[in-house]
Amino acid sequence: MSHLTRALVVLALSLPALAQAADRCGGVKLEGGQVRLGKTVTEAWVKTSEGKDCLADLVKEIDRNRLVRAVTVAALVPDADRVNGKGLASAKAVAAALVDAGLPKNRVFGLAPAPQRNEAMGISLRYVERALEDVVARIASAGGAVFLGPDEAMLKPVEPGMPVLVNELVKTGPNAHATIHLKDGSGIEVKPESTIKMLVLSIPTPADRQVKIEVLSGGIVADVRKATQLGKFEASSRVAVASVRGTQFRFGVGNEGGARLETLEGVVGVTPANDPSAAPVEVTAGHGTSVSADGKIAPPSALPAAPVAVGPLKGALGADARFEWQAVADAAVYRVELARDADFVIDAASREVSATTLSWPEPLAKGKWFWRVTAVDARGFSGAPSKVYAVTVGK
Prior knowledge:
The chain is mainly beta.
């Protein structure tokens, strides 16, 4: 799954949204801990239509920034107004307007500090930002409906380059994928219809990595870079914990409440969530295990082998878009994946068949496509995928 570690992080800004914010606010910038607007912020102005529209755009810009932890509304007023509480009341009124505009209440504060010498009177907006070195995970790529946020009620569509922060959720819709790139070079692919939570994200050095991911639904594919004995990478569900230091594996949650692990490289140790002190069951490369809803770990067993493709291996794809591969022992079905990129994110789709051939049922747009096939046994365990092949449809 080396494609996870090849993913490039592209920082993206929504220029139309920025232009809209500039129009309604007379210009907006977040720089040096200061929120700079082209309008003068007053308690009366934030209650006007113009003020409400501007604050709504400002909140959107704060959300896009992703690193802003909190906003402070500071009312600098004469000492008399500070002492009698008028300054604090004004600051709290503007803070309340920001909450009404969509900023979470626990991220905005109002205060009336004593003004410093030569400091201008009025209301200013300041923010506290996470240091860039504290950001250890970012969305590298996303295809389909992918959302990110602190909880289900605050999920927002992702953009490549967005930081993924501690305790945040990443959620994918049907046929959607997301790739998360960690600072140590590890990669996490979030499968379709999955929700994960980043419980711990700390990588002061690659050797001292501490990453814990809770899979709430669906599953992930992880490509974990090797670390020292101090480093840890855990994927967990309600019933099981998978611990690794350097490997490639899949971990997912079933509808029945259990969990499933498939090790593609290296070794993964699995323990029941209800007994973390239990000796881990080691699952080596090419093997998988399941954990029941009550925490019982099944003995590891072999995964299906990687299929060998027959064709097309390169060049033009025939008019019938027919894919073929050699049979794999113990395979019940084969999952054929097709996408515009070798990471299987852009326009990704998959089909399952019991035969060793598949004619793609829908017409394919012209251009380059990538395909691979994976064997799935009767228990639902998937082995390693075949090699990835590039083909061209029409010209």
